[in-house]
Write a structure and sequence with these properties.
Elements lengths: L1 E5 L12 H13 L4 E8 L8 H19 L4 E9 L2 H8 L12 E5 L9 H10 L3 E5 L5 H5 L4 H5 L4 E5 H4 L5 H12 L5 E3 L12 H11 L5 H13 L16 H8 L3
Parallel strand pairs: 1-2, 2-3, 3-4, 4-5, 5-6, 6-7
Length: 262
């Protein structure tokens, strides 16, 4: 499996504090069945001002350690998790953030957990003009998406892809977030899964519970894509379009058609 969101790169954000901790946690995840990891370090104004040059230098150094420690068992890929706002959109469009696998095709982004930026549609349109595609990290943790999961469809319609945390499915962040993650998965609104591991004992990764729920709610037709194929396409810089997600049927006519299988 592929972990499409992690903070294993040491000493760059609120994730792993040193390489020994990183390797220890990566080994745990390898034993759970993960063999490829996206190292998506935070980029956040005035807090984590990580540049592509600095992240790649640190990644290359850490990659040597990973190869020595794991031999050919594990493969890692560079990237970042950008806090999307008016302050960062220009940096994204002008190549001042590290794209996924440095392919300059896809950017993993997050927004505040408590609100959606009122100009989010405009930010997405502005970035799309620069020929970059966006992947939304853990939207199931956003309060507005929790209240109305179907709202995510508006952004998927703009070709925004979606990554959810396995921890969300396993109840790591509470019942509301767990239920939202289930709803998004059942509606085919999810394209990647990730651990969002910060190498901290405060975040206990409930893998078995999460995978049991994943297997229960995932569309079998898309399962392998979500676990492996989609991530590999992104790592290779390939274009990827969202699944045709399921929408909520409204109105008596739709209920009538469903009842009589019209």
């Amino acid at each position: 499996m592929i972990d499409f969101h992690s903070h294993f790169l040491p000493n760059v954000d609120d994730g792993a504090k040193d390489s020994n901790i990183s390797l220890e946690y990566m080994e745990k995840f390898y034993n759970l069945g993960f063999n490829k990891f996206l190292l998506s370090s935070h980029i956040y104004p005035n807090l984590y001002e990580n540049t592509p040059k600095d992240l790649l230098e640190r990644f290359n150094k850490f990659q040597s350690m990973v190869k020595t420690y794991f031999k050919d068992k594990i493969e890692i890929f560079p990237g970042s998790e950008v806090y999307l706002s008016q302050d960062t959109v220009e940096n994204i469009c002008t190549g001042k953030v590290l794209t996924i696998n440095n392919k300059k095709t896809h950017v993993l982004f997050e927004v505040d957990f408590t609100f959606l930026p009122p100009n989010l549609d405009d930010l997405i349109k502005e970035i799309s003009k620069s020929k970059l595609s966006l992947i939304w990290a853990h939207p199931e943790r956003n309060s507005e998406i929790i209240r109305e999961p179907e709202k995510l469809g508006r952004f998927i319609d703009q070709d925004v892809l979606v990554q959810i945390n396995l921890g969300s499915l396993g109840g790591q962040f509470g019942e509301e977030i767990e239920e939202t993650a289930k709803k998004l998965l059942s509606k085919d609104m999810v394209h990647f899964i990730g651990s969002d591991c910060h190498c901290s004992p405060r975040r206990q990764f409930v893998f078995k519970e999460a995978m049991d729920i994943f297997d229960k709610y995932v569309n079998p037709h898309y399962k392998e894509d979500i676990l492996i194929n989609n991530a590999m396409r992104i790592f290779e810089g390939q274009l990827l379009y969202p699944f045709p997600y399921k929408v909520k049927e409204k109105g008596l006519w739709n209920k009538f058609k469903k009842f009589f299988k019209i």
